[in-house]
Amino acid sequence: MAAKPLKKTPAKKELWTRVQLLRQCNLPARQLSAWEKQGLFGFKEAYAFEDLLSLRVLVRLKELGLSPRKLRDVFDSVKAKLSHVRNPLTELRVFVEGKRISVQTAGNRKMDAMSGQLLLDFDQAELRRLLTFPATRKDEADKLRRAKVDAETWFQKGLELEQNGADKREAIEAYEQALALNPALAGALVNIGTIFFNARKWRESERYYNEAIAADDAYALAHFNLANLHEELGRTSLAIQHYTKAIDLHSAYADAHYNLALLYQNRGRAMEAMRHWKQYLKLDPTSHWAAIAKREMTKLKNSALVGGRATLDPSGTA
Questions:
Q1: Quick one: average pLDDT of 73-81?
Q2: Which of 184, 240, 298, 301 is deepest in the core (most CB within 10 A)?
Q3: Is the pTM of the predicted complex or chain greater than 0.70?
Q4: Which domain does 120 fall in, by range?
C-alpha cells in the first residue's frame, strides 16, 4: 500500500492570512472590518499580493484624509466609466490635486475620477502625488510590484503547460522565469521539484524542495512533498519529521495524517498510527482512501486483541 501522492502548488496560492495582512500594513483589525462593511475591501479567507497592494493604497488614502464615503463614490464612478477595470486600486494610478481626485488610465491618459473628463496636463510633478507608495519609494515599489506580477504570470503559464500536457522542460522554463523575477516564489520551486520527482530524479527534486522550504519554511505543501521524497528513498525518520512539520503548520492536512499513520503502523507504533488514522477519517470520511484507512484501523484493533492488549489509546477504545 502506497503513501498518498505528493501534490503541486495550486493555481491560486494562498499567500497571507488575515493576521499576516494586517501586520504587513500595520493596520488595526477594526479598521479593516470597517472598510469591508463599507464595501471598500473584500473579505477573504486568504489574501494574495494584489490584496496587499489594495490595502496599502487604502491606508495611504486614509492618511491623506479622504473619507470612506468619498472613496466609495470615486470607485463607483471609475467602474461605471471604465467597465474593464475590476480593481481601481491596483489597475489604475490614483492622484489627489486639491479637492480633485484623478486616475491615470491606459496610455498614460489622466481622467477626473468623478466626471470622466480627460485631463491633458499630466507631468512629472503630478506623478509625485501618486498615492500607492510614498514618493521616495515609488520607483522601487513599482519595480517590485511589476516583478511580482510578472513572476505570477510566468508561474501560471507553467501550470497551464503542465495541465495541457506540454513538454515538462517548457513548464520548468516557465517556472524558472518566474523565479528569476521572484526568487522567493516557493510554489514554483515546489512544482519544479515535483516534475523531477515524477521523473525519479531524486537529487534534483530534493534540492528544489529544500529551496522552497528555505524560501518559506511555513509552506506546508513543501514539507509534505519533501517527506514523500524521503519516504520514497527509505528515509523514514526524515519523512516523519517533515509530515509532522506539515501538520504543525496546517493541522487539517489530511494527506499528511494518512501518510504518518501508515509510517507509524509499518514501524509497529500502533498508538500513534491509530491517532493519525482517526484524525484522517475526521477530515476525509468518505473517499476511497478513507475506506483503506478504516481497513487499516480494523487490522490494528484485531492485532491488539490477538496480542492480549486491551486498548490502543488512553481513551480505552480498542
A1: 67
A2: 240
A3: no
A4: 18-132
